[in-house]
Amino acid sequence: MAKGMFIIQGNLCSERVRIGRALQSPPMTQEDLARKIQLMGEEDMTKLIISRIEKNQRHVCDAELRVLAKALGVSMEWLVGDSDEVSIPPTKK
């Protein structure tokens, strides 16, 4: 990617991805989230990518935003900070 290609630095969901993982019962690790997303068909999602997203070192495309929200059981609006309402269903074991 060319430097300066994006107008906005970082991404809107970095903090909310971390919070969304912590709100799971039991809390979800970056590896757990990556594995869940891989099982949803996004084989390229890794723990390193989740880490870079949370550290605001990697942009998130719209398709990734959708799968992150689905994997965390939250809305895309909550994930980008447009909503404060979150209701996370219990994680199945």
List the helices and strands and how they pair.
Elements: H1 14-22, H2 30-39, H3 47-54, H4 62-72, H5 76-79
Helix pairs in contact: 2-3
Please tell me about this protein's structure:
The protein is an all-alpha fold and 93 residues long. The chain has a single domain (14-79), classed as 434 Repressor (Amino-terminal Domain), CATH 1.10.260. The chain has 5 helices and no strands. It has helices spanning 14-22, 30-39, 47-54, 62-72, 76-79.
Which key terms come to mind for this protein?
globular, mainly alpha, 434 Repressor (Amino-terminal Domain), 93 residues
Termini distance?
39 Å
Q: What is the overall shape?
A: globular
Known CATH architecture: Orthogonal Bundle
Strand content: under 5%
Q: What are the secondary-structure elements, in order, as H or E?
A: HHHHH
CATH class: Mainly Alpha
Instruction: Give the biggest beta sheet.
Output: none
Count of helical segments? 5
Quick overview:
The chain has 93 residues and is an all-alpha fold.
